[in-house]
Specification:
It is built from 7 helices and no strands. By secondary structure, it is mostly helical. It has a single domain, classed as dinb family like domain (Four Helix Bundle (Hemerythrin (Met), subunit A)), CATH 1.20.120.450. The relative contact order is 0.21.
Length: 159
């Protein structure tokens, strides 16, 4: 097995499931509806689940764009896009886009030349492709944990 294959395997585990730490991104989102996703009542000052999903989507796309040679993700607003009106249709669309962008990134990483893992992904960047790819795995797991805490808080709100 190559290092690229191992990295993609870790990306899949962190996003789809099978990570040893606990639930992956899709597992923790499995029973989230649009009302829970849009709620920001559970932890004062925290992002909503929906905002985190938009952020995860944007981050996956930014790293894919960096692989393609763009200097992507240089502005905070690129990482934290606005969320649409809280409807079930928009929420399902946000989840579908998250899955699509993560799949696109995993395909780009799978095709990435292993000989370039130590290279920077963009001119303005200070980190290597290797660090970006593993950082993406860590980033997904960090936000999966946040989502799990937000869900727990949501279930304790007396509606």
């Amino acid at each position: 097995m190559t290092e690229i294959q191992r990295i993609v395997g870790q990306m899949k585990a962190a996003f789809e499931g099978g990570a040893w730490h606990g639930p992956a991104v899709l597992e923790v989102l499995q029973d989230v509806d649009h009302m829970m996703a849009a709620s920001n009542y559970t932890i004062h000052g925290a992002h909503s689940i929906w905002e985190l999903v938009a952020h995860l989507t944007a981050t996956a796309d930014i790293i894919r764009r960096r692989i393609a040679g763009e200097n992507a993700g240089l502005k905070d607003e690129e990482f934290w896009p606005a969320v649409p009106e809280a409807t079930e249709e928009n929420w399902r669309g946000a989840l579908a886009q998250l899955k699509r962008k993560e799949e696109d990134l995993q395909l780009a990483v799978a095709a990435f030349p292993e000989s370039r893992l130590d290279d920077k992904l963009m001119e303005a960047g200070a980190t290597s492709a290797y660090v970006n790819f593993h950082g993406h795995v860590q980033h997904n797991l960090y936000h999966a944990g946040q989502i799990a805490l937000l869900k727990k808080g949501y279930s304790e709100i007396p509606f």
